[in-house]
Amino acid sequence: MRPGLGPLYRQVKQRVIRNLIDEVWKPGDMLPSEPRLAESFGVSPGTVRRALDELVAENLLVRQQGKGTVVSRHDPERSLFHFFRLVDAVGERPTPSSRVLACGSRRAERAEATRLGLPTGAAVVVIDRVRSVAARPLLVERLVLPGRLFGALAELAPEQLPNTLYTLYEERFGVTVYRAAERIRAVAADAREAGLLAVALATPLLEIDRLATTLDGAAVEWRLSRCRTDAHHYAVELV
Amino acid sequence: MRPGLGPLYRQVKQRVIRNLIDEVWKPGDMLPSEPRLAESFGVSPGTVRRALDELVAENLLVRQQGKGTVVSRHDPERSLFHFFRLVDAVGERPTPSSRVLACGSRRAERAEATRLGLPTGAAVVVIDRVRSVAARPLLVERLVLPGRLFGALAELAPEQLPNTLYTLYEERFGVTVYRAAERIRAVAADAREAGLLAVALATPLLEIDRLATTLDGAAVEWRLSRCRTDAHHYAVELV
DNA sequence: TAGTGGTCTAGACCACTTT
DNA sequence: AAGTGGTCTAGACCACTAT
């Protein structure tokens, strides 16, 4: 294809990613078969296969033997499975329910703008909610989204916000979260958090500061969660 | 090789792992070349390659172009890079120093025995230490190790314990940690922790509960750390 | 120069899904 | 029966390392 840009299979991979960014192939779409892709890219099937191997490993594509290869979708299971790391004492993932406290749009505060890479004073959508497991509050969180991408979201009634927002982002706004970076700290519950979570003032809470990005590297959500960790914990596997 | 045991390359992979467990190839050793392995396993080079690909992805092997493939070692950088997830405000990994408070052997308490999969009352080595960054205490932790594997460790003077213990485990005791599971919670500092970390009583701390295992699945270290997170945080990348 | 891993190709056969 | 991804093989050439 082109010299000097690294191995062929990586060039193929980048062209596939390009098509995903440009929405030539959208979440849920079936890709052309591997022989067809090989022909259209002008490389051998083995080279296409290697490129797709990496994209599957990165959760961008899903292979289905006998059927074909599709672009990953944020169905609720996937969202929870890949991005929700709180588990209970025996390692089971809970299925939390959400209660929206507030949802509206306003101008970004300075910290919000810098974190999201927006100009100061840009419009943002802000959602405050509590997530509970078995009627027991687990965490309180604030989400800040760029208004440019999510303007219409602020108009939605709180009841219309689903529990797994990434599915909504994808289906209603064409925004696919594919990666997130989390920073985790321990903090003390303030009065509001203590009330919402039904714990004593200054109870230690786990703070999860998440920045979610799309394929092209743009930050699309800043989420600051504060969690009780008496019945749940954050699970990490190190290899 | 054998039918019904899944793909050939996975059988090859398992035989390589078997050789690692049996210490036919030890950390730092060079493996036979891929054509040689293919011949000895009776498969094609491509099949060996695929097996090694997975083992490299799991950090068990390291390929070096032009030289060969070696078994991964726990050199200090690798230990820190793979298993130490605390970073400072700008995302840099600190290089902590350790001060050992106590190191000795005794019988396991019940929680320790169950966590490590040992019979009740089995001998364990216990290490208490504080780790600091730039003379500022970052965390206090207790490590519990099976006495059967680490008996001689209790005799070492505290000054002889290096900062990155996994290197010591590997070089002196033939124990290679290759995986760890962490459970993270927020807790309040007790009097001892507050003193050691120079924080107020009941300051929120990040508790990291880590169980480290070897290739054959045996638990070889239980580590309970409590960390200040005012200047550092735990970093996770979600994909 | 010889040996190693890294890439790329080509083709065969299998397992699975759909028509 | 046809098409898809999954596996396995075989061989060519390249980039890098050692001697």
Protein architecture, described:
Two copies of one chain form a homodimer. Chain A has 239 residues and is α+β, with helices and mostly antiparallel strands. Chain A folds into two domains: 8-71, Winged helix-like DNA-binding domain superfamily/Winged helix DNA-binding domain (Arc Repressor Mutant, subunit A); 76-234, Chorismate lyase. Chain A contains eight helices and ten strands. Chain A has a six-stranded antiparallel beta sheet. In chain A, helix 1 (8-21) packs across helix 3. The longest helix of chain A has 14 residues, at 8-21. The two termini of chain A are 36 Å apart. At the A-B interface, strand 7, strand 8 and strand 10 of A face strand 7, strand 8 and strand 10 of B.
Largest sheet of chain A: 6 strands, antiparallel
Molecular shape of chain A: globular
The CATH topology annotation of the largest domain in chain A reads as Chorismate lyase
Q: In total, how many domains does the architecture of chain A comprise?
A: 2
Q: What's the level 1 CATH class of the largest domain in chain A? A: Alpha Beta
Radius of gyration of chain A: 20 Å
| Biggest sheet strand line-up of chain A | 4-5-6-9-8-7
Task: Summarize this structure briefly.
With 239 residues, chain A is an alpha+beta fold. Chain A contains eight helices and ten strands.
